[in-house]
Each structure stands twice: as structure tokens, then as C-alpha cells.
Specification:
- This protein has 6 helices and 8 strands; from the N terminus they run E-H-E-E-H-E-H-E-H-E-H-E-E-H.
- By secondary structure, the protein is an alpha/beta fold.
- The chain has a domain of about 130 residues: Tubulin/FtsZ, GTPase domain (Rossmann fold, 3-Layer(aba) Sandwich), CATH 3.40.50.1440.
- A 6-stranded parallel sheet has the order 3-2-1-4-5-6, with helices on both faces. A two-stranded antiparallel ribbon has the order 7-8.
- Helix 1 packs across helix 3, helix 2 packs parallel to helix 3 and helix 3 runs parallel beside helix 4.
- The mean pLDDT is about 95.
- Bound molecules: guanosine-5'-triphosphate and magnesium ion.
- Guanosine-5'-triphosphate binds next to helix 1, strand 4, helix 3 and helix 5.
- The site of guanosine-5'-triphosphate (GTP) has 19 residues, from helix 1, strand 4, helix 3 and helix 5.
């Protein structure tokens, strides 16, 4: 049996991992790196993460889910990428980038992404700035749900699960079909 670990970093990472863990469909070990405990998965503080990095990155496949720009998620990614195993193709990062309007957060995130690329980490980015293309076509609440949904979808794809039941924050993947198509169709400004 393949040993798969899904790590959620920061608040958004926690939400995605809790949502996936509660579905009980993915055969994976779930870990959250954030403050406070979590009723459905193992939770680590940043200090605990530092100690646990070699063990965490030793699984057959490791997925790290979260957003950059805030404190906890960014710091967790910084800690993880300093270990050589983080550049292995077994390890993949799925990360949301802040809006440009969150200027300091955005710059912090961009610096870290540059560093990750330098180190050769496998990183899939979901840039909030692209959501502005949906301006006037949907609500903010629906728009900000798209990327967490897409990241969970990537996990479902990995496990070859049917996406019929995939949901996040009260939306099903198919509820956001129109937004997802619009996002892909409208070119960046
Ligand atoms: N699209 C989208 N982006 C989000 C969402 N939540 C957070 N983000 C983005 O992710 C960035 C980081 O947010 P968090 O995950 O809350 O940050 P954190 O790592 O918990 O940081 P601290 O709480 O400061 O420790 C934010 O600045 C937003 O740009 C969400 O639900 N949808
Ligand atoms: Mg947080």
C-alpha cells in the first residue's frame, strides 16, 4: 500500500485538509500545521513541524496544501523546503497566492515562490489575482471558493475518486462549473 500524506498549512490549508479528512474517501494520512487543535487530524505547531520534517517528507507521496502570504502557511513552507527531500518529485505543493492588493503578503509569497523554483520544488500555483477576471460575473464568496475546490479536486484526481460528491464550504464542484469555465475563458488583463 502506498503511503500518502496530505499536509494542510495555515488556515486555508487547515480548511482544505479538514474538508478532505471528513469525507473519509482518501486513503491518506492528514496533518495540519496551524495553531490550535483539530478534531479530525494530527496537528503540529511550527516548532513541532521543524522536528518532524524528515519524517513528514519520507512518505511515498506528500501533498502540501495551503496559501502563501500569511504567517503560518508561509513559515511552514519555508521550513519544509529547506529539507532536500522537498525537491523530490514525490513531494508536491498546491498553493494559493494572495491578491496583489494584499501588497506585503503578495511580495512575501512571490519571494518564497522564487526560492521554491530555485530549489526545484514541484509547485502548483493558484493565483487569486486571476479571480478578478470574474468581477461582475459572480460573488466574492463563490470566487474565493474556486481554488480550494480545485486543490481538493487534484487530490481526488490522484486517488481516481469520483468528483460527484466533492464539496467545499457548502458548494459542490459542479455548482461552480460556470465560474470555472469563465475563469478559463477570459484572458488575463
Ligand atoms: N481564494 C482564496 N484565498 C484565500 C482563502 N483564504 C485565504 N486566502 C489567501 O491566502 C492568504 C493566506 O491566508 P491564510 O491561509 O489565512 O494564512 P495563514 O497561513 O493562516 O496566516 P496567519 O493566520 O497569519 O498565520 C490570504 O492572504 C489570502 O490571499 C480562501 O478561502 N480563498
Ligand atoms: Mg491563519
Amino acid at each position: 500500500m502506498m503511503d500518502v500524506r496530505v499536509i494542510g498549512v495555515g488556515t486555508l490549508g487547515r480548511r482544505m485538509v479538514v474538508s478532505l479528512a471528513k469525507e473519509r474517501k482518501l486513503k491518506a494520512q492528514f496533518v495540519v500545521v496551524d495553531d490550535g487543535d483539530c478534531d479530525c487530524c494530527m496537528t503540529l505547531t511550527l516548532d513541532e513541524l521543524k522536528e518532524a520534517v524528515p519524517e513528514i517528507l519520507s512518505a511515498d507521496r506528500v501533498f502540501i496544501l495551503g496559501a502563501l502570504g500569511g504567517r503560518t502557511g508561509t513559515r511552514a513552507v519555508e521550513i519544509l523546503i529547506e529539507h532536500p527531500a522537498a525537491a523530490s518529485p514525490r513531494v508536491e505543493f498546491y498553493l494559493v497566492l494572495p491578491f496583489a492588493a494584499e501588497s506585503l503578503r503578495r511580495r512575501r509569497a512571490e519571494r518564497l515562490v522564487a526560492r521554491m523554483k530555485e530549489l526545484g520544488a514541484s509547485v502548483h500555483l493558484f493565483d487569486n489575482e486571476h479571480l478578478l477576471r470574474l468581477n461582475g460575473h459572480t460573488t466574492l464568496r463563490r470566487a474565493i471558493t474556486i481554488f480550494p475546490m480545485r486543490i481538493q479536486e487534484a487530490m481526488y484526481n490522484f486517488f481516481r475518486l469520483s468528483k460527484e460528491t466533492l464539496e467545499y464550504e457548502g458548494f459542490r464542484l459542479k455548482d461552480l462549473d460556470r465560474e470555472i469555465r469563465l475563469l478559463e475563458a477570459v484572458p488575463a488583463r
